[in-house]
Write a structure and sequence with these properties.
The complex is a heterodimer of chains A (about 625) and B (about 220).
Chain A: H1 2-17, H2 23-31, H3 33-40, H4 43-49, H5 60-64, H6 67-73, H7 79-95, H8 103-124, H9 130-154, H10 159-175, H11 181-193, H12 198-236, H13 239-269, H14 273-307, H15 314-320, H16 329-364, H17 367-391, H18 395-410, H19 422-425, H20 428-442, H21 449-478, H22 483-486, H23 492-527, H24 533-568, H25 576-613
Chain B: E1 8-15, H1 22-31, E2 44-52, E3 58-66, H2 73-80, E4 85-91, H3 95-99, H4 101-112, E5 118-124, H5 126-131, H6 140-149, E6 154-156, H7 165-182, E7 194-196, H8 202-218
Parallel strand pairs in B: 1-3, 1-4, 4-5, 5-6
Antiparallel strand pairs in B: 1-7, 2-3
The chains are: A mainly alpha (about 625), B alpha/beta (about 220).
């Protein structure tokens, strides 16, 4: 049942969505399907209703004829006669007992729906207060048409009554010179027939009315929902919500479509072809107009939003204008994205570079390769230990394992150093003293001259820098003679970076020297004939801790130098975030350096263990 | 300091009896200097140099200078594994050092396995035999013959004059690189014989690789 009509509805649905310029076409479209229906419809209702409706089957041809003219005439119809005829028809309707009762609630229902629909319109579609009145007018039009058609169709039993009600109308029409033959023809046929059709015709008509009104109310409801959603959406609506609502709207539209079909079917069932045509036409019109109104209000709203803070849309027009020399929006966006990508890359590279500098320098000073060599030695020792372990069993095995664990525990570096002599722990004197003691304890002839030389170089550099700073502060107060010396680095930022670079270099060089020292110690420990693993472990721990102290001391002194230099120069010239970043980086690399040193000492453990079990 | 930009890093190891001149050879190769006196190497020392192979690729050579003393033998064995090439170094004026070469070679082969290292036979102290041929204890012919039987290059060098030093290292480097190109060697995880370096922007590398077959096809 719904299938035959759904296409028509779809066409109407499309028209609602169509922009303004298609309005005229849509009108034509509205009409085109009607003849088809006119031909297609009769057989089906006939089969359904022939028994109950013998007289109605003959009328269709005459029904179609008056349509165009009555369409032209109806706006002139006085309101009074309309209401009058309506009340009469309703009266007739209620008198008629035989006709299906189910259709009546439809009428009432439709009226209610219409009311609620317009009420909703009043609330929801605030910009388009035109809508309710528009719909009202349409309804009236329709009603009138139908009245006329039904009258012309049936030539009813209540001939006189209808004549009464229609006379003023006819008078009006004739006075307008629009009424012509069809009307008169129908008039005569009406008189000829004189059988009880009126109730049927009226029933059909009222069904149409209710159908149409309910359709219109549904449509407007749907539209109001859409528009209200879009209104709020112009703020910031969740797109998913929007999608959901639009789906719902579609659904309700479909429902309405079915209703339309139902209404159309009923009508055709009663063979009131003219009514069908008109109904389709007017419904289409209604949907289009109300749809267009809604679209218009939406468009206005959109323009309002677009023009906010951009009067005349100058900016946006400039942005979108496709002049050949001006870049398009997509180009602008593409370029912006490209720039952002490059910036990100550069930032990452800069970060990587500062991170890699320590590693690179450490590698260049051969720290890495010494560490690798130490690891290889350590692995060899570990393999030897495992080989021995496999060969053992029983008590010797337990003893062997006990020794291994003992050495491992002895090599644990205490977490907290005593802070008492923190100041001195990094000094070269303490370092030299502890290293000498450690080497004596380990009894390996590894010279620590290289380590000490590296430390001395660093200390000398730091001392020189401090002297320059002191000189600077003095000359600044006294006179301007040494200004040139002071302005050695014209850019204070560069001066700070130099200090930072020097700090990283000093740390890398020292760490490399430590790696070499540990490597050589391991090599010579392996050559040693006799071992006292406890003393060896203690010495390794002492050596590790004094070297780590040296690292943190160097880092601290470079950081002091950095902040002192930053404070000396004009604060406007130096970005203090940069200074903090440099200082943080120095400490970061210092901790990196410490972890290398601790790794190296851990690699010594298998070497010491091997010595312990030999 | 070594330029950080290179395509590959090869690890080469120098082996041979003590006092044959391994450290001096390396010092000349990396520093261009000759030290009249040098301390015996303890365990292993390291040198590095950047070198260009025939197609212009930059290779960083990481050179492991092992102690030749017998007492370090147990330690130096640990260092063989991660080498891709080994220079078998003997002293032209020391017959024994040459006679020990097969032993060194066998040891290197055993410890570098499963990898097949690139060898080169390098005779040192050529400057000592230039003036007085009496000093020579190993003839060039017999050394060359040994090299030929093992299909390895043979170079006589002098760390004092620098004669042959560059060629010795270059031949090994080129052979390693050729084996990479032929697919015999590749960068492997857990093996440091060959490492890929801090690569240049990849575009340059691609263009080099693309240009190569075209050039060879037209020649």
């Amino acid at each position: 049942m719904a299938n035959s009509e759904s296409e028509d509805f779809e066409s109407a649905d499309e028209e609602v969505m169509k922009p303004l310029e298609y309005q005229d076409q849509s009108h034509q479209k509205c009409r085109t399907p009607s003849p088809e229906k006119h031909e297609a419809s009769p057989p089906r209702p006939a089969s359904q209703e022939t028994a109950s409706l013998p007289s109605s089957t003959a009328s269709p041809p005459s029904a179609t004829a008056p349509n165009p003219d009555s369409l032209g005439a109806k706006p002139k119809m006085p309101l009074k006669s309309k209401t009058k005829s309506q009340s009469r028809h309703r009266h007739k309707d209620s008198e008629d007992v035989g006709v299906s009762n189910t259709s009546r609630p439809n009428l009432v229902d439709g009226g209610q729906k219409k009311k609620s629909g317009s009420g909703k319109l009043g609330v929801k579609i605030t910009p388009s207060s035109i809508l309710p009145s528009e719909i009202g007018a349409l309804d009236k039009k329709e009603f009138h048409e139908k009245t006329k058609v039904s009258w012309s169709d049936n030539g009813s039993a209540d001939h006189e009554e209808i004549n009464d009600s229609i006379r003023p109308l006819l008078d009006k029409l004739s006075s307008l010179d629009v009424v012509d033959t069809p009307d008169q023809a129908t008039d005569s046929t009406a008189e000829k027939h004189g059988s009880g059709w009126g109730s049927w015709g009226q029933w059909g008509m009222s069904t149409i009315m209710s159908g149409a009104s309910s359709v219109s109310s549904h449509v407007t409801q749907g539209l109001s929902t859409v528009s209200s959603v879009i209104e709020s959406g112009l703020g910031a609506e969740d797109p998913q919500e929007m999608a959901r609502i639009s789906v719902e709207t579609d659904k309700s539209m479909n429902l309405k479509g079915e209703e339309t079909c139902a209404a159309g079917q009923t009508v055709s069932g009663f063979n009131v072809m003219g009514n069908v045509l008109k109904f389709v036409e007017s419904t289409g019109e209604m949907i289009v107009t109300s749809g267009l109104n809604t679209l218009e209000s939406l468009g206005k709203k959109t323009m309002d939003v677009l023009q906010e803070g951009d009067p005349g849309l100058k900016k946006k027009r400039a942005l979108f204008s496709r002049e050949p020399d001006k870049p398009t929006l997509s180009q602008v966006l593409k370029e912006a994205r490209g720039r952002a990508e490059i910036e990100d890359k550069e930032r990452a590279e800069a970060k990587h570079a500062s991170r890699a500098r320590f590693e690179t320098l450490f590698d260049d000073y051969r720290g890495m390769v010494h560490l690798e060599a130490l690891e290889m030695l350590s692995n060899t020792c570990q393999m030897k230990l495992e080989a021995k372990l496999v060969a053992l069993s029983g008590t010797p095995l337990v003893e062997f394992q006990r020794k291994l664990i003992q050495v491992k525990e002895q090599c644990d570096i205490p977490d907290d150093e005593d802070d008492d002599e923190d100041e001195d722990r990094g000094s070269i004197e303490i370092l030299e003293r502890d290293l000498t003691a450690a080497m004596r304890g380990l009894m390996v002839p590894v010279p620590h001259t290289k380590l000490i030389r590296v430390c001395e170089d660093t200390d000398t550099w730091l001392a020189t820098m401090r002297c320059i700073q002191d000189d600077d502060t003095q000359t600044e107060n006294d006179d301007w003679v040494d200004e040139e010396d002071m302005a050695e680095d014209s850019d204070p930022q560069n001066g700070l970076r130099d200090i930072h670079q020097q700090a990283i270099r000093a740390l890398a060089r020292f760490t490399a020297a430590v790696a070499e020292h540990f490597h050589k110690t391991a090599e010579l420990l392996l050559l040693k004939e006799e071992h006292n693993s406890q003393i060896e472990s203690q010495c390794v721990v002492m050596m590790t801790s004094v070297l780590c102290s040296r690292v943190s001391s160097v880092a601290a002194r470079f950081s002091e130098l950095l902040s002192a230099s930053a404070n000396m120069v004009d604060s406007a010239q130096v970005d203090h975030n940069d200074v903090n970043l440099l200082i943080t980086n120095v400490f970061l690399e210092a901790s990196n350096s410490s972890s290398y040193i601790q790794d190296a000492s851990l690699l010594l453990i298998p070497v010491l263990q091997l010595g312990a079990v030999q | 300091m070594v330029d950080p930009i290179f395509d590959y890093q090869f690890r080469l190891i120098l082996i041979g009896d003590s006092t044959v001149g391994k450290s001096s050879l390396l010092k000349y190769f990396t520093d261009g200097k000759f030290a009249e006196l040098s301390d015996p190497t303890v365990g292993v020392d390291f040198f590095a140099r950047l070198i260009e192979v025939e197609d212009g690729r930059r290779i960083k050579l990481q050179l492991w200078d092992t102690a030749g003393q017998e007492k370090f033998r147990s330690i130096t064995k640990s260092y063989y594994r991660n080498s891709v090439g080994a220079l078998l170094v003997y002293d032209i004026t020391n017959r024994k050092s040459f006679e020990h070469i097969p032993r060194w070679m066998a040891e290197a082969k055993r410890h570098i396995e499963p990898h097949r290292p690139v060898f080169a036979l390098v005779g040192c102290k050529l400057d000592l035999v230039k003036n007085s041929s009496n000093a020579r204890e190993v003839t060039e012919e017999e050394a060359a013959e040994f090299a030929q039987t093992h299909s390895i290059p043979h170079i006589e060098t002098s760390a004092r004059t620098g004669h042959g030093v560059e060629i010795a290292f270059r031949s090994v480097t080129q052979e390693v690189y050729d084996r990479i190109l032929s697919g015999e060697y590749s960068v492997e995880d857990g093996w440091d014989g060959i490492k890929s370096g801090f690569s240049r922007p990849s575009g340059i590398d691609f263009s080099l690789e693309e240009a190569e077959p075209a050039r060879s096809s037209c020649c």
